[in-house]
């Protein structure tokens, strides 16, 4: 689906188009957060507490945007974060998102909660991909997924540690998400008019075969997990630090620990052999009223930034947000909703547009800052509340 240049100027425009195209249950699953959605809002608002300090009358022919993450160069300092249920947002789902990431010269992270087989996702990208592991389905399913990820060529394993249970995303029960995914026809009936009012989405959904199974959670003796089984399984399969030695036995590549908000957990992750940590509150979708990710970043960088790579996700909507995160010590950021809005709005073209918007934003911000390379960004380019470090 082609997107008009005059219609899509920023990520908010993609969000508006996604809201128009997708049924409310699907859009709100993507857009919503936990409980009162305080952290969801703070993730974006907190960037306003950081102000730039530009160097003027500085000119340079080239602006260096590339960085290395776990030894792999990416074209600008952002990767695509794992986003569950992507195939419900658009039939191409994870496959087209991975393709767009690779063509843009950056990496893609595949969620366990995905509708396309990991082998097909990896084959779609000319770049590199990481696999994000939940223990949903038990150790047997996880062991099978890790082995498949190795054979398919995924270069790192991402362990998300902030999902002891699923957060209460209040929009979902109000929209009948559970009933739409697995209820009887009678349970679905109150919510069907909203679905039918989005004929383009519905046609794509039905042509894609309807509700996909979770092709990367294969339970021994049972096959791929049904889409609805995830919430119940999550609470029974939370990751603990005690699981890391077992995971390390199965995976000899880099491990990234995602969901870190405090220094002690960052140090624990390093002790467990993490090659990188991701400062993240799960996009405000788990525990509400925690620090926004950008607010937590300085503490984690101070604790482990000299020992391991520090990434960040949460609230990224503009290239200036990415630049601010790098000034505070992040090696790169992960973007989730920003590209998922594009996916829901226009499939491959929407993801491609989201990446283009952010990349151009980063370069424009760098030139206006008077900084010729992202490698040279540091705290001298910003002013931020000093109490962020007093933790």
Please describe what this structure looks like:
The chain has 391 residues and is α/β, with parallel strands linked by helices. The chain has a single domain, classed as TIM Barrel (Alpha-Beta Barrel). Helices cover 43% and strands 14% of the residues. The protein contains 18 helices and 14 strands. It has helices at residues 11-21, 24-31, 38-45, 86-89, 93-103, 118-124, 138-152, 171-175, 177-182, 185-188, 192-196, 199-207, 230-234, 244-250, 263-271, 293-304, 319-327, 337-369, and strands at 51-52, 67-69, 72-74, 78-80, 108-110, 129-133, 157-160, 214-219, 223-225, 255-260, 276-279, 309-313, 332-335, 382-383. The chain has an eight-stranded parallel sheet. A two-stranded antiparallel sheet has the order 1-14. β8 and β9 (223-225) form a beta hairpin. α15 (263-271) crosses α16 (293-304). It is globular. The N and C termini lie far apart (47 Å). The mean pLDDT is 93.
């Amino acid at each position: 689906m082609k997107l008009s240049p005059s219609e899509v100027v920023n990520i908010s425009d993609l969000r508006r188009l996604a809201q128009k195209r997708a049924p409310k249950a699907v859009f709100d699953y993507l857009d919503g957060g936990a409980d009162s959605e305080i952290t969801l809002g703070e993730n974006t608002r907190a960037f306003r507490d950081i102000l730039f300090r530009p160097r003027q009358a500085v000119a340079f022919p080239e602006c260096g945007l590339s960085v290395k993450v776990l030894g792999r160069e990416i074209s600008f300092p952002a990767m695509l974060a794992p986003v569950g249920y992507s195939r419900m947002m658009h039939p191409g789902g994870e496959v087209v998102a991975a393709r767009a990431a690779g063509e843009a010269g950056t990496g893609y992270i595949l969620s366990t909660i995905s509708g396309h087989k990991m082998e097909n996702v990896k084959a779609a990208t000319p770049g590199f991909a990481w696999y994000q592991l939940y223990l949903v389905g038990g150790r047997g399913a996880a062991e099978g997924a890790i082995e498949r990820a190795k054979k398919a060529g995924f270069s790192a394993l991402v362990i998300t540690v902030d999902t002891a249970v699923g957060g209460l995303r209040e929009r979902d029960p109000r929209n009948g998400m559970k009933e739409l995914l697995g209820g009887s026809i009678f349970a679905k009936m109150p919510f069907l008019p909203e679905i039918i009012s989005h004929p383009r989405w519905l046609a794509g959904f039905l042509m894609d075969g309807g509700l996909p199974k979770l092709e990367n959670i294969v339970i021994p003796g049972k096959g791929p997990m049904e889409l609805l089984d995830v919430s119940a399984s999550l609470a029974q399969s939370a990751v603990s630090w005690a699981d890391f030695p077992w995971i390390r036995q199965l995976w000899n590549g880099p491990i990234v620990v995602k969901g870190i908000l405090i220094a002690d957990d960052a140090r624990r992750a390093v002790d467990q052999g993490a090659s990188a940590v991701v400062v993240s509150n799960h996009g405000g979708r788990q525990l509400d009223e925690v620090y926004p990710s950008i607010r937590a970043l300085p503490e984690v960088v101070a604790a482990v930034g000299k020992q391991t790579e520090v990434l960040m996700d949460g609230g990224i909507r503009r290239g200036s947000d990415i630049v601010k995160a790098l000034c505070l010590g992040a090696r790169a950021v992960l973007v989730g909703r920003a590209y998922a809005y594009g996916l829901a709005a226009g499939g491959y073209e929407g993801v491609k547009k989201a990446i283009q918007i952010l990349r151009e934003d980063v370069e424009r911000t760098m030139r206006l800052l008077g900084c010729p390379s992202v490698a040279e960004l540091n705290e001298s380019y910003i002013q931020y509340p000093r109490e962020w470090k007093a933790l």
